[in-house]
TrEMBL record:
<dbReference type="GO" id="GO:0055088">
    <property type="term" value="P:lipid homeostasis"/>
</dbReference>
<dbReference type="InterPro" id="IPR055060">
    <property type="entry name" value="ACOX_C_alpha1"/>
</dbReference>
<dbReference type="Pfam" id="PF01756">
    <property type="entry name" value="ACOX"/>
</dbReference>
<dbReference type="InterPro" id="IPR037069">
    <property type="entry name" value="AcylCoA_DH/ox_N_sf"/>
</dbReference>
<dbReference type="Pfam" id="PF22924">
    <property type="entry name" value="ACOX_C_alpha1"/>
</dbReference>
<dbReference type="InterPro" id="IPR009100">
    <property type="entry name" value="AcylCoA_DH/oxidase_NM_dom_sf"/>
</dbReference>
<feature type="domain" description="Acyl-coenzyme A oxidase N-terminal">
    <location>
        <begin position="32"/>
        <end position="146"/>
    </location>
</feature>
<keyword id="KW-0276">Fatty acid metabolism</keyword>
<protein>
    <recommendedName>
        <fullName>Acyl-coenzyme A oxidase</fullName>
    </recommendedName>
</protein>
<comment type="similarity">
    <text>Belongs to the acyl-CoA oxidase family.</text>
</comment>
<dbReference type="InterPro" id="IPR036250">
    <property type="entry name" value="AcylCo_DH-like_C"/>
</dbReference>
<dbReference type="GO" id="GO:0005504">
    <property type="term" value="F:fatty acid binding"/>
</dbReference>
<feature type="domain" description="Acyl-CoA oxidase C-alpha1">
    <location>
        <begin position="289"/>
        <end position="458"/>
    </location>
</feature>
<dbReference type="GO" id="GO:0005524">
    <property type="term" value="F:ATP binding"/>
</dbReference>
<feature type="active site" description="Proton acceptor">
    <location>
        <position position="443"/>
    </location>
</feature>
<keyword id="KW-0067">ATP-binding</keyword>
<dbReference type="GO" id="GO:0003997">
    <property type="term" value="F:acyl-CoA oxidase activity"/>
</dbReference>
Length: 692
């Protein structure tokens, strides 16, 4: 890239230790960073990581040096080139999903094929019959057809049952007629639809013999395979500029009595019989919502690296950035000279940032739980057993909501912790935040999803309490955390915390009991208000949100603590258990996650009277103690995430700490610096001409 401004060469570094600050931080670590990285990735994935990163970083098509200067059209063109090159690489290197996921992560460029890979293909895999897979999945996997997932409409997104697009079965021709009766039935927001896709999975109300069977998925060809023009009776467009995600063509589509063969209704679970139009029921009514469950689980798995990325930038920058001389504890160099304090040494900065590191590690262990649960469900459902679906739906909904909300809040906290430079695109936060933000809305608005989790919790509570002998459920409490804490609460509703010193709060048993008691207390309270005081669902929505949040926080806490203590077959966990240094630092991080989470929601713990006010003060002191304990390891803890500079795309968070040099280098490349843009105050005109 061209530099438009020549930087003077006389400048000396103002900070004599500047370049070495991160090295000094790294020397403080109490553990082996490479060992922790291995725990996070596992041997196989770490090899994959390096192989894929090398390919991506060396490919000129993926060069991101201009990325912060691109407008919408350039971004979209860049994304198209990226997609095409990615497909070539997939073919050349025979990449599978595992490799592709690394490539997509490193590329960090939401593109028009995202919904094809993330929604269209998984829906065909999950809901298509063998014949349908042959017809649609095989060409989709080969990129001969490009698909999107058209569910949301202009008028309805959250309320899937309220969708207005219809698919009416026509027995005479053995076809469905896809139709958008109202403007509000226009499919809207659909990723890849605006300019790219030639096929769509359309969620539409299935109507046969005049009866509505609810939303079902249909494969519809939407553009001509040669001309790429919309097919007759189909209107398509891009929905326009957005808060972020502008490298993707989110689109709208309207259908005017479009006919498709009966074959195109995805029929693994429910079918329409030829001629008679008879509806064959699915084994579970909600199986047509299956893609949403999968993608929610994938989103939860992705949160840990999102938090890791935000924390890496903010922690490294805070170590390099110095501001003010601390009057009580001035920082002295070896030669006795006094220098300004690194902002990472300010306790307020630690209090804002270290919990983000802890959240990332917490999400790592819960992602493992989510993957295990999803795998178990897939195994069972392949033999017709869908009994895990309710659990899976409840935990994936609530955790998607809690963890993505946590992620967007933390990205913004980290950005602000970088002061003014955090507001520059060069911080690496701006596009990152904009592109990540829809995770709180898509695949279910984060507030709506908590209703689903709460429904499940209330139902379980009622089931257990209405039984004459609730202990009958004890055998399930090992596998089902909800039953476990409900039983504990019923046995001892007035349980009290036994901590008498700050360090007592490091006791994992005390921590678990606190979270179990709090969530059961909150659920019992909501059940009482709805069942006995006859409160409406709507009037309880704030409490509904609270119990989903409390339950999912408990899951995060429980998964972290279990990972530290329980013997496991899992390769990563075994490495962790075998290294006392790693176990020690992970225990501090776990304690910080648990106690900081408690402190933030202290009202719940006080209200349930598990904690007293003096204990709340002790807890806060222990949070401060943990910040001090973690401080020497802060930079190494984020280094262990191994987020490459090419992904961070940040002047502030780069591994070598050369913040200021990069800021001015990137600023010199701002195209505005290549123009003369003068304002002539005498006649109120702007004069703009290219410099060269
Ligand atoms: C080889 C190549 C592979 C490549 C792979 C690459 C991988 C790449 C990864 C990419 C990852 C991510 C990409 C992300 C791209 C995302 C783009 C965004 C796309 C979208 O946003 S699509 C649109 C999403 N829309 C929504 O999520 C809508 C949200 N609304 C709903 O889900 C529902 O309307 C609802 C809120 C759940 C309510 O539903 P409904 O009114 O029908 O149900 P009730 O509340 O009355 O409940 C009835 C009953 O049903 C249970 N239930 C509800 N939903 C489900 C479900 N999904 N599963 C199971 N059970 C469900 C509910 O609990 C009730 O049960 P009960 O009666 O209480 O027992
Ligand atoms: C970048 C992006 C990409 C997307 N890609 C796709 C795609 O590829 N395919 C696709 O089909 N969709 C896609 N979507 C759409 C997305 O899935 C929906 O926007 C999302 O499900 C939310 O639905 P909604 O917009 O109807 O929100 P609404 O339901 O209108 O929500 C608005 C507000 O009302 C509140 N609210 C609504 N109902 C209730 C209630 N019952 N109780 C309490 N509060 C309530 C919500 O909490 C929210 O705050 C995408 C969206 C974005 C932003």
């Amino acid at each position: 890239m061209v530099s438009y401004v020549k930087i003077p060469s006389h400048l000396k570094p103002s900070d004599p230790q500047g370049p070495d600050l991160l090295t000094q931080e790294r020397n403080l670590a109490s553990f082996d960073v490479k060992e922790l990285t291995l725990v996070l990735y596992g041997i196989k994935d770490l090899e994959r990581y390096h192989t894929i990163l090398k390919i991506i970083e060396n490919d000129p098509v993926f060069d991101k040096s201009n990325i912060y200067f691109m407008g919408r059209n350039e971004l979209f063109e860049h994304a198209i080139k990226k997609e095409k090159r990615l497909v070539q690489l997939i073919r050349e290197n025979k990449w599978k999903v595992e490799e592709l996921q690394f490539a997509e992560w490193f590329l960090d460029m939401p593109g028009p094929f995202g919904a094809h890979r993330g929604m269209f293909i998984p829906t065909l895999i999950g809901q298509g019959t063998k014949e349908q897979k042959e017809k649609f999945l095989v060409p989709a996997l080969n990129y001969q057809i490009i698909g999107c997932y058209a569910q949301t409409e202009l008028g309805h997104g959250s309320n899937v049952k309220g969708l207005e697009t219809t698919a009416i079965y026509i027995p005479e021709t053995d076809e469905f007629e896809i139709h958008s009766p109202y403007l509000t039935a226009s499919k809207w927001w659909v990723g890849g639809l605006g300019k790219t896709a030639n096929h769509a999975i359309v969620m539409a109300q299935l109507i046969s013999n005049g009866k509505n069977y609810g939303p079902h998925p249909f494969v519809v060809q939407i553009r001509d395979m040669k001309t790429h023009l919309p097919l007759p009776s189909i209107t398509i467009g891009d929905i326009g500029p957005k808060f972020g995600f502008n490298s993707t063509d989110n689109g709208f589509i309207l259908f005017e009595h479009v006919r498709i063969p009966r074959f195109n209704m995805l029929s693994k679970f429910s079918q329409i019989k030829k001629g008679t139009g008879e509806y064959i029921n699915p084994p579970n009514q909600k199986l047509s919502y299956g893609t949403m469950v999968l993608v929610r689980a994938i989103i939860i798995s992705g949160v840990r690296v999102t938090l890791a990325r935000a924390a890496t930038i903010a922690i490294r920058y805070s170590a390099v950035r110095r501001q003010f001389i601390d009057k009580d504890e001035p920082k002295k160099l070896e030669d006795g000279s006094i220098v300004e304090t690194s902002i990472l040494d300010y306790t307020m900065q630690q209090y804002r940032l270290f919990p983000v590191i802890a959240q990332s590690y917490a999400c790592f262990f819960t992602a493992k739980m989510m993957v295990n649960l999803y795998t178990e469900y897939t195994k069972q459902s392949s033999s017709g057993d869908y009994s895990l679906l309710a659990d899976l739906h409840a935990s994936s909904s609530g955790l998607k909501s809690l963890t993505t909300t946590m992620a967007v809040d933390s990205i913004e906290d980290c950005r602000r912790a970088c002061g003014g430079h955090g507001y520059s695109s060069f911080s690496g936060f701006v596009k990152f935040y904009q592109d990540y933000l829809p995770n709180t809305t898509w695949e279910g608005d984060n507030y709506i999803l908590t209703h689903q989790t709460a429904r499940y919790l209330l139902k379980t509570f009622r089931q257990v309490t209405s039984h004459k002998n609730p202990e009958i459920y004890a055998s399930q409490s090992n596998k089902n955390p909800t039953i476990s804490y409900i039983l504990q609460y019923l046995n001892e509703p007035n349980q009290k915390c036994t901590a008498i010193t700050p360090s007592d709060f490091n006791n994992h048993e005390i921590q678990l009991r606190a979270f179990k008691h709090r969530v059961a207390f909150l659920i019992a309270n909501v059940v009482d208000q709805i069942d006995n005081q006859k409160k409406s669902w709507n009037s309880m929505l704030v409490e509904i949100n609270r119990i989903s949040r409390a339950h999912c926080q408990y899951l995060l806490v429980q998964n972290f603590i279990t990972a530290l203590h329980q013997p496991s077959e899992d390769e990563s966990l075994r490495m962790l258990h075998n290294s006392p240094a790693l176990k020690e630092v992970m225990t501090s991080i776990c304690n910080l996650f648990v106690l900081h989470t408690m402190e933030k929601d202290i009202g719940d713990f006080l209200e349930s009277e598990y904690l007293t006010t003096p204990q709340a003060r002790l807890l806060r002191i222990q949070v401060y103690n943990l910040l001090k304990e973690i401080r020497p390891n802060a930079v190494s803890l984020v280094d262990a995430f191994l987020i490459p500079d090419s992904l961070l795309c940040s002047a502030l968070g780069r591994y070598d700490g050369k913040v200021y040099e990069t800021m001015i280098d990137w600023a010199s490349k701002e195209p505005l610096n290549g123009m003369t843009l003068d304002f002539n105050p005498n006649n109120d005109t702007f004069i703009r001409k290219a410099k060269l």
